[in-house]
């Protein structure tokens, strides 16, 4: 990894809780944790690229599947970039969604 926000490196994930501190500090992604330690949270940029509004007429599980599908869409775009510009290790969402968590 060459650098943080000044280098244009990107992390893609989904979340139920959008508090910035929660998103960054509770991430299990060691690349991202190292960037926080190295550059400081103030030097990382948090951007919501899409809000997913749960659909009331489908199950919670189906809404979670839809959210993961949206994450997959953005991961597909991300993995067209060189590895040094990605904080994500995997081209697929690896963790399940839980209330107040990030994957």
Give your account of this protein's structure:
With 103 residues, the protein is mainly α. The protein has one domain (5-85). Helices cover 34% and strands 0% of the residues. It has three helices and no strands. It has helices at 20-25, 30-39, 60-78. It is globular, with a radius of gyration of 14 Å.
Salient structural properties:
globular
Distance between the termini: 20 Å
Q: Label the overall shape.
A: globular
What radius of gyration results from the CA coordinates? 14 Å
Order of helices and strands: HHH
DSSP strand tally: 0
- Detail the poorly predicted runs: 98-103
Domains, number: 1
Q: What class would the helix/strand composition place it in?
A: mainly alpha
Q: Characterize the largest beta sheet: strand count, sense, and whether it forms a barrel.
A: none
Strand content: under 5%
Mean pLDDT: 78
How large is the count of helical segments? Answer: 3
Amount of helix:
25-40%
Fold blueprint:
Layout (H helix, E strand, L loop, with lengths): L19 H6 L4 H10 L20 H19 L25
Task: Please summarize what this structure is.
With 103 residues, the chain is mostly helical.
């Amino acid at each position: 990894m060459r650098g943080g926000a000044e280098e244009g490196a990107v992390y893609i994930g989904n979340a139920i809780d959008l508090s910035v501190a929660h998103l960054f500090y509770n991430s299990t992604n060691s690349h991202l944790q190292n960037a926080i330690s190295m550059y400081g949270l103030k030097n990382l940029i948090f951007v919501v690229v899409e809000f997913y509004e749960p659909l009331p007429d489908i199950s919670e599980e189906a809404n979670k599947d839809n959210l993961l599908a949206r994450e997959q869409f953005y991961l597909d775009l991300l993995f067209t970039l060189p590895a040094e510009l990605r904080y994500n290790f995997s081209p697929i969402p690896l963790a399940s969604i839980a209330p107040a968590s990030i994957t």
